[in-house]
Design goal:
This protein is mainly alpha-helical. Helix content is 62%, strand content 8%. The chain has one domain: BFD-like [2Fe-2S]-binding domain (Arc Repressor Mutant, subunit A, Orthogonal Bundle), CATH 1.10.10. Bound molecules: FE2/S2 (inorganic) cluster (FES).
């Protein structure tokens, strides 16, 4: 699903960027240009970022417990 229409960025691309090490909106801006034009996608992009970060961290938290 498209998150950023201006730059045709999908949630899959954001999740892939997080898998590759992105951990902030700044990283997404630098790598994918998310929220660098009209900015309407920023809120949704942040939600996808948080969800992707949580999915990466969840197994680490579970294994540490
Ligand atoms: S929809 Fe992402 S910058 Fe416009």
């Amino acid at each position: 699903m498209y998150v950023c229409i201006c730059h045709a960025v999908t949630d899959t691309q954001i999740r892939q960027a997080v898998s590759d090490g992105a951990c902030s909106m700044r990283d997404l801006r630098n790598e994918l240009n998310v929220a660098t034009q009209c900015g309407r996608c920023a809120c949704h992009a942040r939600d996808v970022l948080k969800e992707a970060l949580y999915q990466i961290q969840e197994p680490m938290i579970a294994s540490a417990a």
